[in-house]
Amino acid sequence: AKTETLLEVNNIEVIYNHVILVLKGVSLKVAQGGITALLGGNGAGKTTTLKAVSNLLHSERGEVTKGSIQYRGERVQGLDPAAMVKRGVIQVMEGRHCFEHLTVEENLLTGAYTRRDGNVSADLDKVYTYFPRLKERRKSQAGYTSGGEQQMCAIGRALMSKPETILLDEPSMGLAPQLVEEIFGIVKDLNEREGVSFLLAEQNTNVALRFAHYGYILESGRVVMDGPAAELRENPDVKEFYLGMS
Ligand code: ATP
Fold first, then answer.
1. Could you tell me if the ipTM is greater than 0.90?
2. Which atom of ligand 1 lies at the shortest distance from residue 221's CA?
3. What are the backbone angles phi and psi of residue 62, rounded to the nearest 5°?
4. Which CA distances in Å does 158 have to 12, 48, 165, 207, 246?
5. Among residues 179, 130, 114, which one has the least CA distance to residue 151?
């Protein structure tokens, strides 16, 4: 069967504050039903790439100055972030982007606000089947839950918008290895059982290449290597420069 391309980023350049060139021609594709990893060290441009796709650069004084971004074959550059969510593309930001003063459940419910359709409580139950910890903590104020629970809450909230593609920024950040495994395991389940496609930005190459199908490696705003995850894992340069580190 032919795999469909959902997202196609074609040779984009991104400039911050009119002068700082951060992406110097990045191209990548996200296949429907796949987990695509965007790898690279601190400051390589992973977050910037995700924000370019979800149209979140504007508030950071960043701008796509060259190239194109297409989703399902349609140009999506310049749409507002809410319009991207309507098209099924949602970003889960790096760090703990839950509303601290709301409960876990209230946070999840805020994720459904763009929708007009469907049964929100059934979707809430579905989120709880993937994240039983969130169910246990549903009445807790999000600010008092652990880092791992907040990461789960952020993913759960994104799920409430019924996304086709989740742009997931650095889910492993600041978490103990066991929790990283748990979260990646859930990402894999969501991919396999719900058909959610992922573009996953990660510094933790080791973990990301175990769960992803395809990977791109960014260095200083350029893609320096890409390939099926299994091939990247065996590549001597990847082993030396990336897998040794994490
Ligand atoms: P990290 O894992 O640290 O988030 P990253 O690969 O996601 O790294 P980016 O956050 O995209 O990298 O940053 C790429 C470069 O762009 C860095 O040099 C960073 O300092 C710069 N940068 C990011 N945001 C801005 C901004 N709002 N204004 C100016 N420069 C920025």
1. yes
2. 14
3. -110, 155
4. 26, 19, 10, 22, 27
5. 179
pLDDT digits (tens, 9 = 90+) for 61-93: 999 999 999 999 999 999 999 999 999 999 999
The answer to whether residue 246 scores a pLDDT higher than 60 is no
Token pair for 225: 């290597």
Whole-Å CA distances, 97 to 35, 73, 112, 143, 188? 22, 30, 16, 10, 22
The three-state secondary structure class of 132 is helix
Measured in Å, residue 58 CA sits from the centre of ligand 1 at 14
The one-letter code for the residue type at 57 is L
Q: One-letter amino acid identity for 146?
A: S
Could you tell me the distance, in angstroms and rounded to a whole number, from the CA of residue 57 to the centre of ligand 1? 11
> Ligand 1 center to residue 47 CA distance, Å?
7
CA 96 to chain centre: 14
71/54 Cα distance (integer angstroms): 11
- Ligand 1, residue 201: give the atom nearest the CA: 7
Phi, psi of 105 (to 5 degrees): -65, -40
Instruction: Report the C-alpha gap between 65 and 106 in whole angstroms.
Output: 38
Residue of 174, 184, 222 lying closest to 23 (CA atoms): 222
DSSP 241: I
